[in-house]
Amino acid sequence: MKPRELISLILLNLNRRKGRVLLTAIGVVIGTAAVVVLVSLAQGLKQNASAQFGNIAEMSQISVYPDWEAQMMIEAEGGEYTSPPPITPDVVEEIGAIPLVKAAIPRTGVYAMTILKTGKLEAWANVIGIGTDDLSVLGLEMASGTYELTKGTVIIGEEVLKNFYDPNQRAEQEPLALSDLQDQHMTLELTKWSEDGSGNYIEVKKALKLRVAGIIRASRSEWDYSVYMPLNEVLEINAWVNGRRFDPKKDGYEMVTVVAEDRESVLNIASQINDMGFMAYTPQEFIQGVNSFFVVLQVIFGGVGGIALLVAAIGIANTMTMAILERTREIGLMKAVGATNQDVLSIFLGESASIGFIGGIGGVLLGLLLGELINIFGSVYMAGQNSGMMGGGSATLSVATPPWLILFALAFSTLIGLISGVYPAVQAASLVPVQALKNE
Amino acid sequence: MDYIHTEALNKHYEMGHTIVKALNGVDLSLPEKSLSVVMGPSGSGKSTLLHLLGGLDRPTSGEIYLDGSKLSQLDENDLAVFRRKTVGFVFQSFNLIQSFNALENVSFPMRFMNVPRKQRIEEALFYLEQVGIADRASHKPSELSGGEQQRVAIARALINDPTLILADEPTGNLDTASGYSIMEILAGLNRNGRTVLVVTHDPRMRQFASHIIYLLDGSIVKESVYEQAVQQVS
Lengths: 440, 234
Ligand SMILES: Nc1ncnc2c1ncn2[C@@H]1O[C@H](COP(=O)(O)OP(=O)(O)O)[C@@H](O)[C@H]1O
Ligand SMILES: [Mg+2]
Known about the structure:
The complex is a heterodimer.
Chain A: H1 3-15, H2 18-51, E1 61-66, H3 68-76, H4 89-96, E2 101-109, E3 113-118, E4 121-124, E5 126-130, E6 142-145, E7 153-157, H5 178-181, E8 185-195, E9 201-216, E10 226-230, H6 231-242, E11 255-260, H7 266-275, E12 278-281, H8 283-326, H9 328-336, H10 341-386, H11 403-429, H12 433-438
Parallel strand pairs in A: 5-10, 7-9
Antiparallel strand pairs in A: 1-11, 1-12, 2-5, 2-11, 3-4, 3-8, 6-9, 7-10, 8-9
Helix pairs in contact in A: 1-10, 2-8, 2-10, 2-11, 8-10, 8-11, 10-11
Chain B: E1 4-15, E2 18-30, E3 35-39, H1 46-53, E4 61-66, E5 69-70, H2 76-85, E6 87-90, H3 102-107, H4 117-130, H5 146-158, E7 164-168, H6 176-191, E8 195-199, E9 211-216, E10 219-225, H7 227-233
Parallel strand pairs in B: 3-8, 3-9, 6-7, 7-8
Antiparallel strand pairs in B: 1-2, 1-4, 4-5, 9-10
Bound molecules: adenosine-5'-diphosphate and magnesium ion.
């Protein structure tokens, strides 16, 4: 039989038993809908979680530190403590030469206490020296100003604005606006303690005048909370604090931020850096862990739906077996007029697969509908829950149906139909025509 | 060798301890374009003989040659093709598909032959015309009389233009008048050059027959040949 002929006959056969076919398909509808809703729910939870993970730029970054962990291990096992190899300028250069590394940017914090002052306001600030004069390489978005970091300027994270307050005023204060700081000058007050020669420590202060060149838009990343200065200026401050200049042969930077050309190469680059004897952290590693949790969740949820589909499969097998009993004479007739065993097999397999497919379509539609309802209900409910809280992250219960899931659900339900039809179809195909015709 | 030729044909059924010999050593030879009437009491093996000749079942032993082919040498697929191309069956109980109309029932065998839909409809109408019920093409079996249903079944048997028509008590469920017109249709098919075997109890069929075969307990007990009738067709 030609496929076209086969399909038309299958459709004809299904059509004349509409009621039975639909009743059987309901089982598949429920099973498929369960698979679609549950897996979509897991997918929605995953996307929600990923959204909390911070910005996308960070995904192509690697944070490199001296290998403190290895040293701690040696110490814990009774070995002698030595400091790990420092991240010297040579090391930074070596990391920068790894293929697919876009930039290796050394960073070092200020070793003094730091307070920013502008007008009557002041704020505690985490000041970081960064070894690039162009922050655009980090893939960050600016809320205002420029990416360019020159001597005498700073670029600050947007969240730093919230830290400014007037120490002489008690009442709640309005946070600063971007324009309050952009291109404005402020004072960085540094405090160190040094011995006065008689065993007493005295406070030594120093003030630097700085201009705010740009403000980094908040993106739920570490870049939101710090103040960035050119690295050399920070090294000078630290030389003042320590009373000793930075020695590029011996001294290292606190860390290096490595920017990869693309996200795919991040894990590979990180492992090369680890092999060099440094510690490389990527947010991807963490996200991978979280992702695999959600994969497990999807499999479990999918499995629950799968059980529902299995029950449906029994229904299909039952219907097809009944059909053979009811249509024994018809099978005999088909064979008498020249249908081959293969023809009969194809017809019956096609019918059961079609029941699966029809149920699959119904199930996908029902699943999408339920998903929509969950989304609507979920956002209304969560909005109620969140309204009491202050700002904060807004968690929503949401369902996300990826296109592959729809295709998978259709293919799977059809396969279930096909498999449940195998035994009845083989039975039908192997009927001896004369026996089938005698059956009254 | 004759068009239909059997040698020591046996069909035995095991029923518990006893063996039912539905056919017992049947040697039969029938020429092409003959019209044979098979008679005999109920249980004498008439249906069994027709089923074996038509390739609906296989003998326990013995050989069937039909139109030159040795049926025992055909595998399941070849046998299906043989039934499709060479044989047209007509049953006592019509065996029409209730949810199909007359036209769909008649064209049904062509679905297994890769015949385009348009041609299927044309041919089905042609054969419905031949059996005289073209005006009932869109009627379901439940809307047709017994005689009309059997005509639909005959049209279906003819659709693949077989050379052999096997009819098992085709008038058994019909009233006298419509039974007779079915006999006339079968005789007409024979006159058009088809070989026809009819199982019937109706003596009126004899007038059309070239051969009459009497079966009893699975064996041929008497065979009459009416030369004139054979000559008429050849
Ligand atoms: N499938 C079967 N199993 C057992 N016995 C059968 C079967 N088919 C036919 N028979 C027996 O074979 C004999 C011949 O049957 P059949 O050819 O139908 O006779 P007829 O058509 O002449 O009435 C009968 O005794 C019948 O009971
Ligand atoms: Mg009989």
